[in-house]
């Protein structure tokens, strides 16, 4: 970044090949050596979506999630898609860390802001998920799975109207392996999939959120592959969503996501990014895939 012009290639290669923790450490050393703030320097040297991506990469993950959630609820309207993507995929520990970061940055509680911006049964679901109190027991109790499957059946298909509270209780408090067993039992009982039942019984954001939980239980990388596909398909690109997934998953399961993308859509994630993005922004996204 010294002197005239910017060596973007060097910036991309250094930052995309490091973990979030290492990038923060680099910024710390950078300030120690040169007395300058790395993020401010990057911002003044770059622009547009490339700048957005670099700033996202340089943000501690809990703060990054907190900002995404805050921006989804702040202002007019709510981006429920962001709330669903974050709240339905995080572990208890991650939710607690994000809540702490949120309060540190904004001085309010994440739970209060979520509740103030959502309504009805979707609001209840978000509040439940915000507790970060899902069972983390990896032991599966088949008997209990059968009972839960039966309660879901009785709360949904076997009655007029739907008792949302039963779905809320089961999908927010049972461990992921236990939920997988419950969905299997549900299939045995009814001969069809829990996903179809949710589609038939619910609508709107609540339906999206419950189906997201089902998807995450079964195949988390596929859930994110579908979100990436959605961010790029059709006219225009939802860059914010694309950046969020690439940045938050790049050291978790981006390789698996990329494989799922290929097997589901018959085209590579790389080819979609190349077709939808350009310039250093494109190169930086490919760098996160290990392809630059």
Automatic annotation (TrEMBL):
The lineage of its organism: Eukaryota, Metazoa, Ecdysozoa, Arthropoda, Hexapoda. SMART domains: ANX. Belongs to the annexin family. InterPro entries: Annexin, Annexin_repeat, Annexin_repeat_CS, Annexin_sf. It holds the Pfam family Annexin. Transmembrane segments: none annotated. This is Annexin. Keywords: Annexin, Calcium, Calcium/phospholipid-binding, Repeat. GO terms for molecular function: calcium ion binding; calcium-dependent phospholipid binding; phosphatidylserine binding. GO terms for cellular component: cytoplasm; nucleus; plasma membrane; vesicle membrane. A pair of annexin repeats may form one binding site for calcium and phospholipid.
């Amino acid at each position: 970044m010294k002197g005239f012009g910017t060596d973007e290639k060097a910036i991309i290669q250094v930052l995309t090949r490091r973990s979030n923790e290492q990038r923060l450490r680099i910024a710390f050393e950078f300030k120690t050596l040169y007395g300058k703030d790395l993020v401010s320097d990057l911002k003044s040297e770059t622009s547009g979506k490339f700048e957005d991506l670099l700033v996202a990469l340089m943000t501690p993950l809990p703060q990054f999630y907190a900002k995404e959630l805050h921006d989804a609820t702040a202002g007019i309207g709510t981006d429920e898609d962001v709330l669903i993507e974050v709240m339905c995929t995080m572990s208890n520990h991650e939710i607690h860390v994000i809540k702490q970061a949120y309060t540190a940055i904004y001085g309010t509680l994440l739970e209060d802001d979520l509740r103030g911006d959502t309504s009805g049964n979707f609001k209840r679901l978000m509040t439940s998920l915000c507790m970060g109190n899902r069972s983390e027991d990896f032991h599966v109790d088949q008997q209990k799975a059968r009972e839960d499957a039966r309660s879901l059946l009785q709360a949904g298909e076997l009655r007029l109207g739907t008792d949302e509270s039963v779905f809320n209780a089961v999908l927010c408090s049972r461990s992921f392996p236990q939920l997988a067993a419950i969905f299997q039992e549900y299939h045995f009982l009814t001969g069809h999939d829990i996903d179809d039942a949710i589609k038939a019984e619910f609508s709107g954001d609540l339906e999206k959120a419950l189906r997201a939980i089902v998807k995450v239980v079964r195949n988390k990388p596929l859930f994110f592959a579908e979100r990436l596909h959605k961010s790029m398909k059709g006219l225009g690109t939802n860059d914010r969503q694309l950046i969020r997934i690439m940045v938050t998953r790049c050291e978790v399961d981006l390789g698996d996501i990329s494989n799922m993308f290929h097997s589901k859509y018959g085209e590579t994630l790389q080819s979609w990014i190349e077709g939808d993005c350009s310039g250093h922004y494109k190169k930086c996204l490919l760098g996160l895939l290990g392809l630059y």
